[in-house]
Amino acid sequence: MTKAYWVAHVDVKDADAYMSYIQANAKAFDKYGAKFIIRGGAQEQLEGQTRARTVVIEFPDAATARACYFSPEYQAAKALREPVSLADVVIVEGYGAWPARLPDNDFI
User: Fold this and answer.
1) 40-80: per-residue pLDDT in tens?
2) Beta bridge partners of 7
3) Residue 33 backbone dihedrals phi, psi, to 5 degrees
4) Model-level pTM greater than 0.90?
């Protein structure tokens, strides 16, 4: 089973109100076995554009990551986040096991 990740880039407009979201999202993250890999640490922008805060959350697989996002618990937390921040959130599947041999004509 390949792990999956939420990758979020967030601009927080009201830090005090955003704390309510952080407290509320714990229910969903606990329920779905989420593990924080990155939670808003210092970052250095090297290329392109992003937001001020980056968050990466690990899940056992993509189905679990998706279920967490659409769960009533997370949707309630998200309703607290939306008025006080701007966010881009994607689910990304992790890198699976490397095949012992690549198929012919398969270039990386």
Assistant:
1) 999 999 999 999 999 999 999 999 999 999 999 999 999 99
2) 56, 90
3) 70, 35
4) no
